[in-house]
Amino acid sequence: MLDEAAVALDESAVRRIVKEEIELAMRKDPAARRASIIASKGTLDWAYPPFILSTAAAAAGLEASIFFTFYGLNLITKGYPERIKVSPTGNPAMPMPVPMADVFAGMPGMKAMATSMMKSMFKGKGVASLQELIDVARETDVRLIACQMTMDVFGFQQSDFIEGVEFGGAAAFLSEARRAHVTLFI
Amino acid sequence: MLDEAAVALDESAVRRIVKEEIELAMRKDPAARRASIIASKGTLDWAYPPFILSTAAAAAGLEASIFFTFYGLNLITKGYPERIKVSPTGNPAMPMPVPMADVFAGMPGMKAMATSMMKSMFKGKGVASLQELIDVARETDVRLIACQMTMDVFGFQQSDFIEGVEFGGAAAFLSEARRAHVTLFI
Amino acid sequence: MLDEAAVALDESAVRRIVKEEIELAMRKDPAARRASIIASKGTLDWAYPPFILSTAAAAAGLEASIFFTFYGLNLITKGYPERIKVSPTGNPAMPMPVPMADVFAGMPGMKAMATSMMKSMFKGKGVASLQELIDVARETDVRLIACQMTMDVFGFQQSDFIEGVEFGGAAAFLSEARRAHVTLFI
To answer: Which of A16, A31, A54, B135 is deepest in the core (most CB within 10 A)?
Structure first.
């Protein structure tokens, strides 16, 4: 017993151990390993940020998920990568080869033109298409979650969505986001 | 004294206790119990996410607050639930019973039509109206905070706001958000 | 050795120390001292939130950074503070001295009018101009980071940006944001 008593610790030794363990725990802070991203918009331009950020997060070793809600729900419906459009209206800062007044940007045909312009800008620069982003997200285990309330309001069925999509409500998003440092509403 | 020395702990016992306590502390991580949400938009469609997410957070036991700034400030002014509009422009992904070119979406009258369409979609599905969302937020103790700087810029008075609203600046938002895992700008 | 054994700690004493240290560590939680903000929009109205929130964060002692991506990249290009415009389209909640139908908001000239209206509202209330916000951000050591992928897609060169801007990708943003409580996509 005396030998054991000899290795017993006093307060300063205990505090040193505690600080070491806390620093270790903070370094592997589980919230630093999770990214919970909401995709709420359905246009081509705003489709990129949630996919780029979540796949970059997954590539960095984080558990990443995208919660698709409101207009963003469209992004994971079947056939959407072919139908997706960019909206030039209300984006006066979008760089365009030819400057144009906003009223033209609101005319029929302009949306298709802006869409093909952006598609080719991204294509020409080796940036992925929406379909490629979806593929990368699935390959890197980014979880794709469809908002059930929006599905009900807009009349979507589970069969409208691409393969591998999960379904959940705001509570499902929050149960992950409350344990994540990276939480973004896009 | 010998009896006490007999229960003294060696380093491995101390490390075990420390890890237990850290795991407990992490589980009740105070940042996991707080949601700080900014509402910056004043249209009907973008009014839903901050209210739905914050009331869902409150229902899950989190302390939730909405900081209303910029256009979002309107949401908590008196009489706004009756006046609120949805903006169809720039939302090409909004599902519509009848497809329409964006130029029509920008015409006078279309906004009212999109608004009533969305109101009835939400109503028909048992989703709350803005007034009901405000009521639920108040019942679940979601804090509603009006951005003072925006009030000054846009010329709002405290008397313009619904009952129970608090007033604070960006510093007030940050003092909460810096202690919250869920921080969203909507 | 017997004297040392006499101050050795039993389990309840160790647990008390551990809880004290954890509470201290939580109070100086490093994630509470960092704000990682994305600026994705290039109009005058949406330029304010990232600058106001990040400079307020810096003023409160946080390490703050703004990651400029997509349309937001324009905000830190040379000469932009003079060229920046506010977009009235799709903002039906923007308070205006004179109400106007949305179709007028989309006409050429209206954007300039809304811009000058907002500039004078902010000016009249003592709120900073974009140039002043950039100056304050630099004085308070808010880091300004340009998104390299967007630069490539939109054809920006490093020389297009104002002094003091750093360059990085989504991975650079995430390496900071995963250690920050305040993470906002604006």
So the answer is: A54
pLDDT of residue A123: 61
Report yes or no: A154 and A174 within 8 Å, Cβ to Cβ.
no
Tokens at residue A152, please?
Answer: 């009900």
CA-based nearest distance A100→chain B, Å = 16
Q: Is B162 on the interface with C (CB under 8 A)?
A: no
Encode pLDDT of C137-183 as tens digits: 998 999 999 999 889 888 899 999 999 999 999 999 999 999 999 99
Best residue of C20, C174, C181, C184 to probe chain A, by most A CBs closer than 10 Å: C174
Looking up tokens 């010998």 gives B2
Per the model's pLDDT, the better-predicted residue between B55 and B121 turns out to be: B55
Cβ atoms of residues B47 and B132 within 8 Å: no
Residues of chain A with C-beta less than 8 angstroms from the C-beta of C74: 93, 95
Q: Which of residues 15-74 of B touch C (CB under 8 A)?
A: 17-18, 21-22, 25, 30-31, 38, 40-43, 69-72, 74
Residue recorded with tokens 């009030």: B151
Amino acid of residue A89 = T
Determine the pLDDT at residue A120: 56
Does the beta carbon of C10 lie under 8 angstroms from any beta carbon of chain B? yes
Instruction: State residue A154 phi and psi, 5-degree precision.
Output: -90, 0
A101 Cα distance to chain centroid: 32
B-to-C residue pairs, Cβ atoms closer than 8 angstroms: 139
Asked if the model's pLDDT at residue A18 lies above 80, the reply is yes
| pLDDT above 90 as % of chain C | 41
Q: Could you tell me the end-to-end alpha-carbon distance of chain C, in angstroms, rounded to an integer?
A: 62
Q: Cβ contacts (< 8 Å) between C121 and chain B: which residues?
A: 153-154
CB A89 within 8 A of CB C89: yes
Classified as helix, coil or strand, C159 is helix
Evaluate whether ipTM surpasses 0.85.
Answer: no
Residue in the structure block whose two tokens are 């030794």: A13
Centre a 10 Å sphere on the Cβ of residue B83 and count the other Cβ atoms it contains.
10
Rounded-to-integer distance, Cα A144 and Cα A64, Å: 9
CB C51 within 8 A of CB C130: yes
Q: Is C116 on the interface with A (CB under 8 A)?
A: no
Tokens at residue C86, please? 């506010």
Q: What pLDDT, in 10s, does the model give residues B36-82?
A: 999 999 888 888 899 999 999 998 999 999 999 988 999 999 988 87
pTM as predicted: 0.79
CA distance B35 to B184: 8
Q: Which residues of C touch B130 (CB under 8 A)?
A: none
**Token digits for C112?**
């300039």
Nearest chain B residue (CA) to A30: B26
Helix (H) or strand (E) holding B166: strand B166-168
| Minimal Cβ distance to C49: which of B70, B87, B106 | B70
Instruction: Quote the CA–CA distance of B144 and B125 in Å, as a whole number.
Output: 26
Question: Residue B184's closest CA among C37, A6, C163, A66?
Answer: C37
